[in-house]
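ok so i was messing around last nite and threw this chain in just to see what happens. nothing serious, just curious
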Amino acid sequence: MRPSLKTDVLVAVDTALRSTGFVRRGHVWLEDRGDGVAGWLGFGVAGSLELTPLVGVCFRRYDEVCRALGVGIPTTPVVSVPLGFLMGDKPVWRWEFKTGGDHAPAAASLVAAFVKFGKPYVDKNAKWDAVAKDLVAKPESLLDFDRARKLAIIHVLGGNRSAAVEVLKKERERIADEVDAYARSYRAFAQRFEIAFPA
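result:
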């Protein structure tokens, strides 16, 4: 059976990424930065011909707390952005691959942009203390559905359980009358958090 076009495209990207230190692990590419830190590269896929690169940084200490709380997926970045966001004046958000064509040139173009714009983002954000400080100072930089969970975990990792509890309390108050999937999931998370990190 012939591989799918999507598989062919991802193989071309994987080949182009080999010199960068990023290695495919399942559906993402990781770069071991030492000390439990990994650069992260993932792709939004539109159909089988367009890739939107996302760049981020993962931290083992954060993953360990998530695993203990039964949330998240291992090696999910704590911070991430679309590569196009990092590209300045004329960003490229998606790389298109032609059916039946040679995928190497488009893969090389994507990887060149990643090396120029994405790797510096990884370098800048590969220090836990700096990332944690930035996220606490600018919580609005986190997505709404992630904000309270991430901040609570960041605070507890920093040894500030009372700040974590305050974050949990504010989010509970905000969703007090909500009954959607997020509200139910968040309440269960908050309960597990308080059990895992008692006063």
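not much to say yet. The longest strand covers residues 37-46.
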